[in-house]
Design a protein that fits this description.
Blueprint: E1 4-12, E2 15-20, E3 23-28, H1 32-38, E4 47-52, H2 62-73, E5 77-79, H3 84-103, H4 114-134, E6 135-144, H5 151-158, E7 163-167, H6 175-178, H7 184-191, E8 196-199, H8 202-216, E9 220-221, E10 224-227, E11 230-236, H9 243-249, H10 253-265, E12 270-277, H11 284-297, E13 305-312, H12 319-339, E14 347-350, H13 356-365, E15 368-371, H14 380-387, E16 395-399, E17 412-414, H15 419-431, H16 434-450, H17 453-475, H18 481-493, E18 497-501, H19 521-532, E19 536-541, H20 546-553, E20 559-562, E21 567-569, E22 574-576, H21 582-597, E23 603-606, E24 611-614, H22 620-638, E25 643-648, E26 651-656, H23 661-671, E27 676-681, H24 684-692, E28 698-702, E29 711-713, H25 716-726
Parallel strand pairs: 1-4, 1-6, 4-5, 6-7, 7-8, 8-11, 12-13, 12-15, 13-14, 15-16, 16-17, 18-19, 18-27, 19-20, 27-28, 28-29
Antiparallel strand pairs: 2-3, 9-10, 10-11, 20-21, 21-22, 23-24, 24-26, 25-26
Helix pairs in contact: 1-17, 3-4, 4-5, 7-8, 10-13, 11-12, 11-15, 21-22, 23-24
The structure holds GDP-alpha-D-glucose (GDG).
GDP-alpha-D-glucose binds next to strand 12, strand 13, helix 13 and helix 14.
């Protein structure tokens, strides 16, 4: 079987299979995504699209499945067969009865059901199996949408050399909403298997990053998340439309014929149009309510306007959708009954999927598009309406709860919960001078014609490749087995060895509080063994106070440097370096205390030569707000002093500039000249040692951040493994 270099995975395939009169029927959809894929050029020359073809596996014989595979293959598609139960519990269940309502802020509609979750995991495994079967080990894989949020992580494990992108087509809700989901951590971990995670707008990306920080406790900065030996990029890519398709199809005979029909049917009336899937997120009821209020307030418009509602059947097996349809149809009946007459039906309603040319003609003919979603990831209809206005004028009224509003500021912006604002907008739209309509349309058209769905897809893929490149560059310093062997050989042949080891984050992972990060018996033994080798000087260079180092390591034959070198115990007693911080502490501590009093989880640590603000226990967003203003006040307070303020691992530390680990490294090397120097550390203060040591020293940074060290290693566990080999 061919292995593909480019793989798209989405819940549904762009070709649907159904059974009509006993025969299998294949219906390709001309959705934006399918068009975008065709435009990816070389990148997608050899692509395969994996997804469900829309027919339950229970209804198919083995022979039919073979036919489907073959026929779909000719469209670059590969089917994942889901059973009726899987469709019910995974697609209608977890995806559309749990995630969809929750992510659209309808938390009261979200159903939490363990059978849904089990099916979601099970379905994800089926998609994974298909990808593993078809993808080249180093393929680029683009996973789409909320149905498949576990897949990136599963693929990361199954195909570690692949490049994985994920795009979410719906909103990512704020942490306050997302955290209600019982499986919130698993969902985030699933997504973080990707190299690049895309959202429509920056707000969704921001919500995602805040959930990652608060639920998983991971560090996020500038749209990146560090995950062990990988960096995951998060960014906004507002999906566009196939702009030229809308422009070009306007002159087609089929469209023109539809336009003529509409002109005749709605002669003398203004058309207010809405097109959407019949979904509670689209705010159809609010729209009806607003139209009714409009007719009441402006009775002069009776018989002069028609509201045309196209509602595309969607998720018709889900109870909430059935109920919604009933309510919508009753409401339309009531309004038509109240305001209609023999020759006038205020609302014309179609519950069906119309052919493209009919939708396009409606867009071109409508005087107003009234789009009132209560929440919408993007809303393509708004963009399509604007694109269809090449020869005609019209006004777009758009809910500010859509992702599209950011790119369409010339629309009349409404809050769908504010019925009055919709009534006002309708009146304004119907009376807007044509010149103004055109001016607004042209600005929006210029923007939409530039960032099309083709550009969107290309942009995403380019950034996906770039993030992979960035990762490769970063991993070029990662300690390989060969380098480890080289370092160990150098240590063996050397006559005098100097080992400079940081403690927290290097020999021991961080714990909730500093007191909890006690060295284990195994670690003590390792340090003892390393130090016992003839010709070896081992120094623990830490920011910790000397009492702690004395307590933990005082009995070992090692050199200790406490408080970044303010105190050194070389042989015998502790020696204090020249520096003082007495006066400045009197300024700093009251300020920190003032902050700590209103920052739950924060702690202050006072050392002889340093004061530390610990915020590991503080909620992420509160911590970043407090840290920003604290740093500002510290700068004002300490601007003219010799005290420096630096960021460490969930700490802000203040210490005299002259007390630095780099000076410790220089002094120790002078005292213990060595032909093998190894220095390992993880944070800002250790960078100072890396820089101070001669070029031939083996300097190793723990973690992936930029560093002056020659090598990098990902975790404290790998540090210990390496040191064990060295001992
Ligand atoms: C999800 C997100 C996000 C509609 N009726 C007919 C028809 N359509 C076409 C429209 C448009 C598409 O369906 C609907 O796209 P939307 O973006 O408006 O909404 P969702 O279906 O909810 O899509 C959404 C989108 O994903 C993309 O990321 O924007 O926020 O919810 O293209 O023209 N097409 C035809 N007949 C119809 O009757 N042929």
């Amino acid at each position: 079987m061919d292995r593909h270099k480019f793989v798209i995975v989405s819940n549904r395939l762009p070709v649907s299979v159904s059974r009509q009169n006993g025969e299998l029927v294949f219906t390709p959809s001309s959705g934006g995504l399918a068009t975008a894929m065709a435009s990816l050029g070389d990148q997608s020359a050899d692509y395969v699209w994996i997804g469900w073809p829309g027919i339950a596996a229970d209804d198919l014989t083995a022979a039919e499945k073979t036919i489907i595979r073959k026929k779909l293959g000719s469209h670059n598609c590969f089917p994942v067969f889901l059973t009726r139960d899987q469709v019910r519990l995974f697609y209608e269940g977890y995806a559309n009865d749990t995630l969809w309502p929750l992510f659209h802020y309808f938390q009261s509609l979200a159903q939490y059901n363990s059978a849904y979750w089990a099916a979601y995991k099970e379905a994800s495994a089926l998609y994974k199996k298909a990808v593993v079967k078809l993808a080249h080990p180093s393929a680029s894989i683009w996973v789409h949408d909320y149905h498949l949020m576990l897949l990136p992580h599963q693929l990361r494990i199954a195909l570690p050399a692949s490049t994985i992108g994920f795009f979410l087509h719906i909103p990512f809700p704020s942490y306050e909403i997302f955290r209600m989901l019982p499986e919130r951590a698993q969902i985030l971990e699933g997504l973080l298997g990707a190299d690049l995670i895309g959202f429509h707008i920056y707000d969704y990306a921001r919500h995602f990053l805040s959930s990652v920080a608060r639920i998983l406790g991971l560090e996020t900065s500038h749209g990146s998340i560090i995950m062990g030996d990988r960096v995951v990029k998060v960014d906004a890519f507002p999906i566009g439309i196939d702009y030229q398709k809308f422009v070009n199809s306007l002159d087609d005979d089929a469209t023109q014929a539809e336009l003529a029909t509409l002109a005749e049917h709605y002669e003398g009336k203004k058309i207010i149009l809405s097109v959407d899937r019949l979904d509670y997120s689209k705010g159809i009821l609010k729209r009806l309510e607003a139209f009714e209020a409009f007719l009441k307030r402006y009775p002069a418009y009776l018989k002069k306007v028609s509201l045309v509602i196209v509602a595309v059947p969607s998720r018709t097996e889900v109870e909430t959708y059935k109920d919604l349809r009933d309510v919508i149809e009753q409401t339309i009946g009531r309004i038509n009954g109240a305001f209609g007459s023999v020759d006038y039906t205020p609302i014309s309603y179609q519950f069906k999927n119309l052919p493209f040319e009919q939708v396009l003609a409606l867009f071109a003919a409508a005087d107003v598009a009234l789009l009132t979603p209560l929440r919408d990831g993007m809303n393509l209809v708004a963009k399509e309406y604007v694109a269809a206005k090449q020869h005609t004028s019209g006004v777009l009224i758009l809910s500010e709860m859509t992702g599209a509003i950011d790119e369409l500021p010339e629309a009349l912006r409404i809050n769908p919960n504010d019925i009055d604002s919709i009534v006002v907008a309708l009146h304004r739209a119907l009376t807007m001078p044509k010149k103004e309509q055109l001016r607004r349309l042209h600005s929006m058209q210029r923007r939409l014609s530039l960032y099309t769905v083709q550009r969107w897809a290309n942009d995403f893929i380019e950034q996906l490749q770039a993030s992979k490149q960035h990762q490769l560059q970063q991993s070029s310093k990662l300690l390989t087995e060969a380098t480890e062997a080289k370092i160990i050989r150098a240590a063996k042949t050397a006559k005098r060895r100097l080992l400079l080891l940081d403690y927290d984050g290097t020999l021991r992972p961080f714990a909730a509080t500093p007191q909890q990060a006690i060295p284990s018996a195994g670690l003590i033994k390792l340090i003892r063994n390393l130090a016992a080798q003839t010709g070896t000087t081992l120094c623990i260079v830490s920011g910790r106070p000397r009492v702690t180092l004395e307590d933990w390591f005082g009995h070992l034959p090692v050199v200790l440097a406490a408080e970044h070198g303010a105190f050194i115990k070389n042989e015998g007693d502790w020696v204090q370096q020249q520096a003082t911080m007495h006066d400045q502490k009197k300024l700093i501590i009251p300020l920190l205390q003032h902050y700590a009093d209103r920052t739950p989880g924060a702690r202050i640590e006072e050392k002889d030569f340093a004061v530390v603000w610990h915020y590991r226990g503080v909620a992420t967003e509160l911590a970043s707000a407090r840290n920003a203003s604290l740093r500002y006040e510290l700068r004002r307070l300490l601007g003219n002093t010799d005290i420096e303020v630096h960021n460490g691992a969930k700490i802000i530390e203040m210490k005299p500039r002259s007390v630095r680990k780099g000076a410790v490294a220089e002094d120790l090397l002078a005292l213990h000249p060595a032909d093998f120097v190894l220095c390992i550390g993880d944070d800002y203060t250790d960078e100072d040692m890396f820089k101070a040591l001669p070029d031939e020293a083996f300097t190793i940074k723990v973690g992936l951040a930029d560093t002056a060290a020659r090598f990098q290693i990902t975790t404290t566990d790998s540090v210990l493994q390496f040191l064990r080999k060295l001992s």
